[in-house]
Design brief:
The chain is mainly alpha-helical. The two termini are 22 Å apart. The protein is 58% helix and 9% strand. The strands form two sheets. It has a two-stranded parallel ribbon with strand order 1-2. A two-stranded parallel sheet has the order 3-4. The protein has nine helices and four strands. The longest helix is centred in the middle third of the chain and has 15 residues. The structure holds adenosine-5'-diphosphate. The site of adenosine-5'-diphosphate has 19 residues, from helix 2 and helix 3.
Length: 186
């Protein structure tokens, strides 16, 4: 978990390859569908461009389908999910039905000033439709209002790994590995 621009995607890829599990990014799934103009893509495009969250039922159905794929049987890493309390409960129940639970929840912290600069830089390089200044501001607000409070849930559950997301990609990665390895059951 982490605010827009905190480095979730980059660090998720590194963590997934360390543990040999697939990294599942709901944002990437939506972007792929938008690019190939599927029904789902057309349904979510305007929402994502406005910086709002895709409805829970739509997002949860996509995650459930993805987690049912055989490559998730030995574990998985979710990037950008859950983002609402409804999604938290959905995931807890989905996993419990299969006798599973989350091992660890990583929270990446970066100061807000640095976040906006990172996102504007990414906009220049990647041209993501939701990386313009107005949408970035809205995504920050939505994250602070809906997603940041979920950290308390995982703190209470004892699964939260707090990681300082400032500094180089490698520094953050090493801090995260050290934190998550303590929860590893592998
Ligand atoms: P960022 O964290 O920088 O916003 P993501 O790629 O994780 O980037 O998400 C991009 C957009 O995709 C979000 O702003 C939101 O509109 C949508 N999205 C991704 N994951 C979810 C989710 N779990 N619930 C609702 N909407 C989501």
């Amino acid at each position: 978990m982490g605010a827009p621009g905190a480095g979730k995607g980059t660090q998720a890829t590194a963590l997934a390859s360390r543990y040999g599990v697939p990294a599942i990014s709901t944002g990437d799934i939506f972007r792929t569908n938008i690019a190939s103009r599927t029904e789902l893509g057309l349904q979510v495009q305007a929402i994502i461009e406005a910086g709002e969250y895709v409805p829970d039922d739509v997002t949860e159905a996509i995650v459930a389908d993805r987690l049912a794929e055989p490559d998730c049987a030995g574990g998985f890493l979710l990037d950008g999910f859950p983002r609402t309390m409804h999604q938290v409960h959905f995931l807890d129940e989905y996993l419990a039905a299969d006798g599973k639970e989350l091992d660890a929840v990583v929270s990446l912290h970066v100061n807000p000033e640095a976040l906006v600069n990172r996102l504007l830089e990414r906009a220049r390089i990647e041209g993501r439709v939701d990386d313009n200044e107005d949408t970035i501001r809205r995504r920050m607000e939505v994250y602070a209002g809906q997603t940041a409070p979920l950290l308390f849930h995982y703190e209470r559950a004892g699964t939260l790994v707090d990681v300082d997301g400032s500094g180089s990609v490698e520094d953050v990665r090493d801090r995260m590995f050290a934190g998550v390895d303590r929860y590893s059951k592998v």
